[in-house]
Amino acid sequence: MNELQCGTSPIVGFRFSLHPMTDRFVEVIKGAMKETDTSAVWMHTDDVSTVIRGKQAHVFNVAKAITLHAAKTGVHVALNGTFSVGCPGDSAGDVYLDMPDELLNQDETKQYVSSQFALYPMNNPDYMSVIYREVDRAKERGVFNESMHYASGIHGDIHDVFDFYEEAFENARSDAHRHLVMTVSMSINSPSHEGSVKR
Amino acid sequence: MNELQCGTSPIVGFRFSLHPMTDRFVEVIKGAMKETDTSAVWMHTDDVSTVIRGKQAHVFNVAKAITLHAAKTGVHVALNGTFSVGCPGDSAGDVYLDMPDELLNQDETKQYVSSQFALYPMNNPDYMSVIYREVDRAKERGVFNESMHYASGIHGDIHDVFDFYEEAFENARSDAHRHLVMTVSMSINSPSHEGSVKR
Ligand SMILES: [Ca+2]
């Protein structure tokens, strides 16, 4: 029951699924995984999702690179996932905390993405103010889209959006409250975005 | 900032996206929505996701019906979503709490689904024991698949799986700890399931 033991490891995890809305979905997913350098993270794929674990910077770098590679096919793709820290489970991936800091994926191609996120700071009586603060940060960063039930809309260029997500995730946890969860849903190349000024 | 005010309304919400991995994704999504009776829930769709809100039983009934209708096309579909209660935001949907209890979608077609879920009982110092208990419940109900980082695997017939999710969601909250979040990722008609004994 490794998922039920919370610890103090700084290892960050992202359990996600990438959904290309095309008959060629296998090809798009495999291509995106192949074009991404995932050597800095521990990775495991099952029949529902993929999990990557390692240093925060590498986890966000790999998550963005896989998404961007899939996006560049032009296909409508969705990314759904949960970032977690402070509940490391077993220590199988802890060796990845010794990886060098240099980011291995550097593609700067611009890509509009529309997304939604929610922060869940666990066992923190003051969690609502943490959420307020990070939503305010999105507004300051120029990536806030709209308020909505149970989430906040975040959009813009994929690099700005992932930068915000990493910054929010970094800031929403503390030594006193280590267990943090952040869900992200992202839509790219959607027919709903055609002709949108948001592009 | 309606998402930032937690309250005591019993209204349940489910923010989700349905991803048919086919070029005909628009047709599959629209078909599933059209064939489902959604009159017992408040519903809003944006460019990333759809949110339904109402009585717990109706929210789970509608979520399952939309998923089952999409699954019956035979296409590989994924469902990703977050159930929430105790953080109702504005009261726009509260009128739906007056709906009759009778469930409006009754399709009993069997369908194998593989899924993963995570429970996030907010501001509850004892949250890990809540999670333990509900994972044990999955084992008792015969829908537990496997342990994994950050989630638990749940599979079986769609009706048994949704019954478990509703039961877990009902039991993981209390009057003392009203704000509960549950994420669910589901994969249906996946090529990964072909020939699997799990079917
Ligand atoms: Ca607490």
Automatic annotation (TrEMBL), chains A, B:
Q: Residues of the signal sequence?
A: none
Q: Which InterPro entries match?
A: HMP/thiamine-bd (IPR015835), MTH1187/YkoF-like (IPR029756), Thiamin/HMP-bd_put_YkoF (IPR011522)
* Source organism superkingdom: Bacteria
The name under which this protein is listed is YKOF-related Family
A Pfam cross-reference name:
Ykof
**One MF annotation (Gene Ontology) recorded for this entry:** thiamine binding
Binding residues for thiamine: L18, T50
Domain Thiamin/hydroxymethyl pyrimidine-binding YkoF putative as annotated: residue spans = 11-90, 114-192
